[in-house]
Amino acid sequence: MHGKIKNNQDKITTGLMSLYLLALIWIVPFKMQLSFQDLRYFTDFREINLIPFAGSVIVDNQIGINEVILNVLAFMPFGIYISMLKPNWSFWKKIVPIAGFSLLFEVLQFIFAVGASDITDLMGNTLGGIIGVGIYIVFCKLFSTKANKILNVLASIGTICIFALVLLLITGVIRYGSYV
């Protein structure tokens, strides 16, 4: 029975991770645009920043920490999901796909000229994944065999809330950005 429960939890986790990755792809390379035509406002911007915490994170001669924090937060679920699906993998084996996915985003942004490719983003995203792995470890220590089930419930609630927010943004019920 325990194997079947674990298998069902893995199916739920896989589904949630798939939705998460789709949302992440929509947010990062597609800049939350609903069509390729809308994406044109972000094109023709091809830049590489290899100096951490410089360039794109400097606004008015100050580090724009919000972007870094958002990158960390955006990739924390990646670390949690990969830990849930591959609990026996070593720490570094879990971090490699997180950093690789982030690097892929940075390369795609450069290739398609839809934003700056920034080492700070890569670092923040990877840190988010590392924190996610750490969160999973804490949940396992606190909740033992129930950790995945609890995380799946929390992730389901979070996914519903995020998709509700996206729906409200798409329909214009709430607006993001300037109100000019």
Features:
68% helix, single chain, two-stranded antiparallel ribbon, mainly alpha, 4 strands, 180 residues
Condensed summary:
This protein has helices at 2-27, 36-39, 65-85, 91-111, 119-143, 147-171, and strands at residues 45-49, 58-59, 62-63, 114-118.
User: What percent strand?
Assistant: 5-15%
DSSP helix fraction:
55-70%
Could you give the order of the helices and strands? HHEEEHHEHH
Number of domains: 1
What overall form do the CA principal axes indicate?
A: globular
Q: Give me the secondary-structure category.
A: mainly alpha
Overall pLDDT confidence: 85
Q: Segments where pLDDT lies below 50 for 5+ residues?
A: none
Number of helices: 6
Description of the structure:
The structure is a single chain. With 180 residues, the chain is mainly alpha-helical. It has one domain. The protein is 68% helix and 8% strand. The chain is built from 6 helices and 4 strands; from the N terminus they run H-H-E-E-E-H-H-E-H-H. It has helices at residues 2-27, 36-39, 65-85, 91-111, 119-143, 147-171; strands at 45-49, 58-59, 62-63, 114-118. A two-stranded parallel sheet has the order 1-4. A two-stranded antiparallel ribbon has the order 2-3. Helix 1 runs antiparallel to helix 3, helix 1 runs parallel beside helix 6 (147-171) and helix 5 packs across helix 6. The protein is globular, with a radius of gyration of 18 Å. It starts with a helix and ends in a 9-residue tail after the last helix. The model has no long low-confidence stretch (mean pLDDT 85).
